Amino acid sequence: MGLIARGASMAALGLVLAGCSSITNHRGYINDETLIASVQPGLDNQQSVRGTLGQPTMVSQFGEPVWYYVSSQTEQSPFRQPRITQHSVLAVRFDEAGNVVSTDRSGIEQVVRLSPESDETPTLGRERGFLEDLFGNIGTVGTGAPGGGAGGP
């Protein structure tokens, strides 16, 4: 009986530890170094890049034509938000004729982390309290209404 109880407790411990492991997830473009290295400036154009690398994640809307291939790997521990562990962006720049000019890569060092201050959006203007909101317009009714007063034009 002791052997069965020990085996059951070891199995339960194994399940608990397996539940505490982090989950790895891949998001975006899957980098294939061989395909990325095959894109050559001066030789390739937009059609050959699309055939080699596939549809880009994003395309620049202004300025010079640039295609971006974004890839991220995240890990998530139980009861926590996912965090980015690896991040890369491949930027393929084209000239006006659609030929590849350059390919640039950047990593997680270019990622900006934003943390909002609170749930309120700061606005310009005067801070008013509850009583000012409640009683602030007493005595001002009808004094500045357009077309509503004697002696108008």
Q: What this model shows, in words?
A:
The protein is an alpha+beta fold and 153 residues long. Helix content is 25%, strand content 25%. The chain has helices at 2-19, 33-38, 46-53, 130-135, and strands at 23-28, 58-59, 66-76, 83-94, 100-106. The model has no long low-confidence stretch (mean pLDDT 80).
Features:
Beta-lactamase Inhibitory Protein, Chain:B, domain 1; alpha+beta; 25% strand; 153 residues
What is the CA–CA distance across the termini? Answer: 103 Å
**Could you tell me the strand content as a percent range?**
15-25%
Low-confidence stretches: none
Tertiary shape: flat
- The helix content is 10-25%
Number of helices: 4
Over the alpha carbons, how many angstroms does the gyration radius reach? 30 Å
CATH architecture of the domain at 22-111: 2-Layer Sandwich
Helix and strand element order: HEHHEEEEH
**Averaging pLDDT over every residue, what do you get?**
80
Number of strands: 5
Could you tell me the CATH topology label of the domain at 22-111: Beta-lactamase Inhibitory Protein, Chain:B, domain 1
Category from helices, strands and their pairing: alpha+beta
Q: Tell me, what is the CATH class of the domain at 22-111?
A: Alpha Beta
Largest sheet: 5 strands, antiparallel
List the helices and strands and how they pair.
Blueprint: H1 2-19, E1 23-28, H2 33-38, H3 46-53, E2 58-59, E3 66-76, E4 83-94, E5 100-106, H4 130-135
Antiparallel strand pairs: 1-3, 2-3, 3-4, 4-5
